[in-house]
Every structure is written in structure tokens, then in C-alpha cells.
Design goal:
Layout (H helix, E strand, L loop, with lengths): L3 E5 L8 H14 L4 E5 L5 H6 L10 H5 L10 E3 L5 E4 L5 H10 L6 H8 L6 E5 L6 H9 L2 E7 L2 H20 L7 E8 L6 H17 L11 H8 L4 H4 L10 H12 L2
The protein binds adenosine-5'-diphosphate (ADP) and magnesium ion (MG).
């Protein structure tokens, strides 16, 4: 079995990164694998989505990236019986990002941590902030794979193309070997009643194929996603029969296949 490190990346906020992160985590755990969710966002979104109280900074991703880290991960289990653990974020991640800029091997700090102090999980998901700064560079350098949620709005689609370019260029500059694989685009918050969403969804296959990126089925828009996260849950645990729980099926199958690869 292979350990997969998956970055959920986008250069825009509010496109569904954290939603995708927690639902993929839950789905892969339900398939019987161990998952770690790591919050690299100073906004600490995973705390909300997982129903966790804020944690003291020494027990968050800030500590993992700090010079004093000696493998003392303080990941917490979430959603009882789910095999998912979370390494919580903290607002001081913003300052840590600045420190990494001037530190030796600053871009590789997270990758170095995984190498020196490996996690046991089959899948590690990095929930990233929206700005393409030092935290996302760290995420990319530590990743085997990247997943990109795309909103069906004009700017988001051109933004997604720019993001792919950023991934390729940054992987080159950092001489990542192997380079992380872009798993694909995930159209997010699709509302079939919105004409623009329908039009963009129709155009996406061509855009994705021009970029050489796989296109996953859309995740539909539903207020139940918001309701589930308000209770610190996933849609799967909050409304197990909701049709949108199936929207993550293909992504889950692909990741399970990657984990099972020799
Ligand atoms: N498919 C969806 N349908 C409805 N609301 C969604 C959906 N996906 C995400 N949201 C909501 O949109 C907001 C932004 O999503 P989030 O996952 O936090 O994005 P990001 O991590 O990219 O900032 C949240 O309130 C979330 O609950
Ligand atoms: Mg987020």
C-alpha cells in the first residue's frame, strides 16, 4: 500500500476546498482506510467543519512547522468510529508562513516533517488556504497528488488554469521528484437552475482536456452541506441518504485505487 498526500488547492477562497477535504476524508475512512486531515489554513476552517474547539498553538500545525517539532504530533480523532484524525490549524500559521520564507529549506519544511516523522495514515489531506504563498508551496512540496475544486463562475475557471500553471512551475522550481500529480478538477457547488453553471459545466471538459487535467463529476449545491458543517459533520453522517453524498464516489474510487497501488 502507498501513502497518498493530497493537497486541496485553489487560488480563490470559498470555492469548497474544506468541504471537499472533509468529505473525501470521510469517504476514504468509510472505505476502511486511515486518514489524517491537516489544516494549513490560518482561518482554521477544519475546526468548524469537524466540530473541534480551538487548540493551543503547541498542538497545531504551527508547531509541526516550527523548529522545535520532534515528531510530537497531537492529531485528534474526529467523527467517532471514522478513522479520521485532524491536525488542527491556528491563526499564527500566517506568521509561520513569513518565518518559512527566511528559513533554510523553508519550502520543504512540511515534506521534511513527513520524512522525519511519518504519519501512519494511508491518506493525508492538506486543507490549504486560498493564497499561493509559502503554506501552499509547502503543501505542494509535500504532496503526491493535488485536487482542485472549481466554482462554475467565469473568474474561477480562469483561476483554475492559472493554478495548474502555478503547480507545474513551482514543482519545476523546487525540483520536486517525483512531481505531484494533478488528480483533477472538481466542479463545486453546481446549481442546475443557474444557466451560467450549466454553460460552464458544458465548457469545462474542453478546458480540462486542454490543460491535460481529469474532470470529475460535479458536486451539487445544497444547503445541507452548510447545515452539516454547522454541526461539525459531513453530509454522509448528517444526511446519509442525501443524493449529494454520491457526488464524491469517483474521487473516492480513484484515491482508493492509488492507495492500493504497489
Ligand atoms: N456543494 C455545496 N453546496 C452548498 N454550499 C457549499 C457547498 N460546498 C461548500 N459550501 C459552503 O460554501 C462555503 C465555502 O466552502 P468551503 O469549503 O469553506 O470553501 P473554501 O475552503 O474553499 O474556502 C461554506 O459555507 C460551505 O459550507
Ligand atoms: Mg477552506
Amino acid at each position: 500500500m502507498k501513502q497518498i498526500v493530497l493537497s486541496i488547492l485553489s487560488n480563490a477562497g470559498g470555492v469548497g476546498k474544506t468541504t471537499l477535504a472533509v468529505h473525501v476524508a470521510y469517504s476514504i475512512a468509510s472505505a476502511g482506510f486511515k486518514v489524517a486531515l491537516i489544516d494549513l489554513d490560518p482561518q482554521r476552517s477544519l475546526d468548524v467543519f469537524c466540530g473541534l474547539p480551538p487548540r493551543e498553538v503547541e498542538r497545531t500545525t504551527v508547531h509541526v512547522l516550527s523548529k522545535s517539532f520532534k515528531g510530537d504530533w497531537s492529531n485528534v480523532p474526529v467523527w467517532s468510529e471514522s478513522k479520521v484524525e485532524v491536525c488542527q490549524g491556528h491563526p499564527l500559521l500566517a506568521e509561520m508562513a513569513n518565518e518559512l520564507v527566511i528559513r533554510k529549506r523553508g519550502e520543504y519544511t512540511l515534506a521534511d516533517r513527513f520524512k522525519s516523522y511519518p504519519l501512519e495514515q494511508n491518506l493525508i489531506i492538506l486543507d490549504c488556504p486560498a493564497t499561493l504563498g509559502m503554506l501552499n508551496t509547502n503543501a505542494l512540496a509535500a504532496s503526491t497528488h493535488v485536487l482542485v475544486p472549481v466554482q462554475l463562475e467565469m473568474k474561477a475557471i480562469s483561476g483554475a488554469a492559472e493554478l495548474i500553471e502555478w503547480c507545474i512551475n513551482t514543482s519545476d522550481e523546487l525540483q520536486l521528484d517525483p512531481k505531484p500529480t494533478i488528480l483533477g478538477f472538481v466542479p463545486s457547488m453546481y446549481d442546475e437552475k443557474v444557466a451560467m453553471h450549466r454553460q460552464y459545466l458544458e465548457q469545462l471538459p474542453e478546458i480540462a482536456s486542454q490543460l491535460g487535467v481529469k474532470l470529475y463529476p460535479r458536486v451539487r449545491n445544497s444547503n445541507e452541506f452548510k447545515n452539516a458543517s454547522a454541526y461539525g459533520q459531513t453530509l454522509h453522517s448528517y444526511r446519509p441518504k442525501h443524493p449529494a453524498t454520491k457526488d464524491f464516489k469517483e474521487i473516492t474510487e480513484d484515491i482508493v485505487a492509488l492507495i492500493k497501488e504497489k
